[in-house]
Description:
It comes from Bombella pollinis. By secondary structure, this protein is an alpha/beta fold. It has 14 helices and twelve strands. It is about 35% helix and about 15% strand.
Amino acid sequence: MEKTPSSESSERIIGAGWQKLATFLTHAGRQKPGRDGSFVNPPIERGSTVVFPTVADMEAQGARAYEHELVYGAMGNPVQHELERVIAALEGGQHTQVVNSGLAACTVALLAFLKGGDHLLLPDSVYGPTRRFAVNFLARFGVEISFYPPRANEAELRAYMKPHTAVIFAESPGSHTFEVQDIPLLARIAHGVGARLLLDNTWGIGAFQPFTHGVDVSIQALTKYPAGHADVILGAITVQKPEDWRALRRAAIELGACGAPDECWLTLRGLKTMAVRLAQQARSAYALAQWLESRPEVACVRHPALPSCPGHALWKRDFQDASGLFGVELAAGITQEAMMAMLESLELFGIGASWGGYESLVLPTSGGLKRTHHEGLPSGAAFRVQVGLEDVDDLKADFFKALTLLT
């Protein structure tokens, strides 16, 4: 098993943290056998209308809309509710709301906890569509938007706070540039002024326990590792406090946000193998990242588990393991055009925007990132790598051939 280098006394074994989840994920969301036996996996129930024997029964069930109970199809379905229980346990929260995409998880969460006149503080490294939603949508309804450098210290962060700051949003590691944020610090600052801390925890699912570090709302793109097979679009929002659950659930109902039964069922199935998939993907990604870091064509590799990566100390302090996604910046003098030709020559890596599936992918990132602050932006040609389930030696060999095009 690949070991991370470390200047400290303890060493982190990449992949071991995921394996600790294997028993939980194997048994979570399974059916208990009935007297006459039953299938291991729960059935898919598709429907919109829910019928009741009496009006009184219908009204009584309607009063249970906050209890993951069947009320109406647009308010959730049985397999969605089972998935919500599993994700809540995995994230260490009390309640989860499943919605139709990872972006919807970001937007529904923001709408649940913001109102006109509030101030929203976003990290400059936030997922691009979340940034666009804030700037193009929330601002139209009177929410003030500010962006802070994701690696800002306490004094710098406090300078961004305003009397009407209602939400601090975090994404750790950051999209494309992989800055690890000090989540306990952000939580302390947010709670000190009565604001909530929302975290996009997609990279860290299973590896970072948000609520033990002070997060109020944890957001997941279940499209990624939980579903795991590049065939599902789904998201989840998890909370711990009862008042946060009521606000979130009310927003989801009013926005009509829910998950389709088939998508939820596929995600439940994907979760059964997520621990073993991620154990291999994390190990392979780290080995590939180490190898790429040693190449003369590469200026730096942005992988939080690498000691050379800014934020590595925070990753080592707060995370139980790593992911299969990281960034690469090429050496000075290598043009964007040369990088494109190199990426297009890869045989085992598709060119695509998603990640978390079984397949390896690359995506150009330089030139297209929107930032308010220059900090963290690559100075040269850069791309993102998603490592799938292929043999890591084959992936290295594929990159070796492609990198020769740059010399």
